[in-house]
Specification:
Length: 396
């Protein structure tokens, strides 16, 4: 069903600041009910808010490609070939994806578990019970940053700068500025120096693996390696950071759910899936129709773009129940699309889940009482449902 702009709501889905309040969630709810395939008049794109439609488009890259842009901001620029794995379509995408899959095997993840637990405990030990803290700055941001830095083989002295660079790239994805573009170039220069070091002295880290990798019998070019490093840094950091942030916010604002989780830690894996569904760390990605087609009976013309709103699909009442807006650790959230779907399903999903499970197991063991100490501050972004600041009081 398509509803023309004149008779349907016109939420400003092109404005990153719109997503910093719950008004956006109310708009998603209205679109799911009245216009699940909605033509957004400015700057002109389709918006999908039902889970089944998002899944259908995601599993058909031949009809709905990534190579012409995956962010709303991509509309205003040319997409370079192989700019990032997230811009690749089959069969090229599969060849590059295989290069990093060994870093996320079950065996490799099990080897990381003790290190992640140790890091989580160390970060939490610095927090004073009963004293307000910003959980993003103190715990949710540094934990995944330290983990992905370990995987990449980044020296400990450089990791503080990584957060600044990662934040700049996320900001540039919605609102490019001279400052965040300059910081992105700093990160490229940093990775270029690390790649040069690994060519001379390889280790057992992921960057060393990439330097020695081949696609169709040819070594990866410098550009490909740099794009891989930047993508892995941002993807490995941001999703988990916001899983932890949204999860902690959920437990602080839903005390009955938190009490159940503290009483029965066996519920934690299911609770993590509900945190992913309810929080939806990745807001959206875009696809482009490669031919004339249709979605839910609505004609889509070749070249038209579709915004897959994961945050809206993850609250689809027809899938998750009439109370889909609520947070419930008893809910079966298995069908959520917080990690995307299809060829572009997040490579680090298992790592993010493990980090989330360890993070909340350690957090609730030390601080079973979590309360808000001020308003949550959300990130103005067109594709990331991020949390900038989460003031909490943690108590034993």
């Amino acid at each position: 069903m398509s509803v023309p702009a004149s008779s349907a709501p016109a939420p400003p889905l092109h404005d990153p600041h719109f997503f910093t309040s719950d008004e956006s969630l109310r708009a998603f709810q209205q679109l799911r009910a009245e216009a699940p395939v909605y033509w957004h008049p400015t700057p002109g794109f389709w918006t999908l808010t039902r889970l089944d439609d998002v899944v259908a488009v995601s599993r058909d890259p031949a009809t709905f490609c990534s190579g012409r842009g995956v962010l709303l901001s991509d509309r205003a620029r040319d997409i370079a070939p192989r700019q990032s794995i997230i811009y690749m379509d089959p069969p090229e995408h599969g060849k590059y994806r295989k290069l990093v899959q060994p870093a996320f095997t079950p065996g490799r993840l099990r080897a990381l578990e003790a290190r992640i637990t140790e890091t989580a405990r160390s970060l939490l030990a610095r927090l004073e019970p009963g004293r307000p803290c910003d959980l993003v700055d103190a715990f949710a941001a540094p934990l995944p940053m330290l983990v992905i830095a370990d995987l990449l083989g980044v020296p400990g002295s450089d990791r503080a700068q990584f957060k600044l660079w990662s934040d700049a790239i996320i900001e540039a994805g919605s609102t490019p500025t001279e400052e965040n573009m300059a910081q992105s170039m700093e990160l490229l220069a940093y990775f270029s120096s690390v790649l040069a070091e690994r060519r001379v002295s390889p280790g057992d880290d992921l960057i060393s693996v990439l330097v020695d990798s081949e696609v169709d019998g040819e070594r990866l070019e410098e550009f490909d390696l740099l794009m891989f490093c930047m993508t892995l840094l941002v993807a490995g950091n941001e999703t988990t950071r916001n899983l932890i942030s949204h999860g902690a916010h959920a437990l602080a604002t839903h005390p009955a759910e938190r009490v159940q989780l503290v009483a029965d830690a066996a519920r934690l894996p299911r609770a993590i899936e509900e945190m992913l569904r309810w929080g939806s760390p990745i807001m959206s990605f875009m696809r482009t129709a490669t031919c004339d087609t249709s979605v839910r009976g609505t004609p889509i013309r070749a070249g038209e773009q579709l915004l897959l709103l994961y945050a809206a699909a993850n609250r689809d009442e027809s899938v998750f129940g009439a109370d889909a807006e609520a947070f419930s650790i008893a809910r079966d959230s298995a069908r959520h699309v917080a990690f995307g779907f299809g060829e572009h399903f997040c490579l680090g999903a298992a790592l993010a889940r493990m980090e989330g499970r360890i993070a909340f197991a350690e957090l609730l063991a030390r601080f079973p009482k979590i309360e808000m100490a001020g308003p949550i501050e959300r990130l103005p972004s067109l594709f990331l449902r991020g949390v900038v600041r989460l003031p909490l009081v943690l108590s034993a």
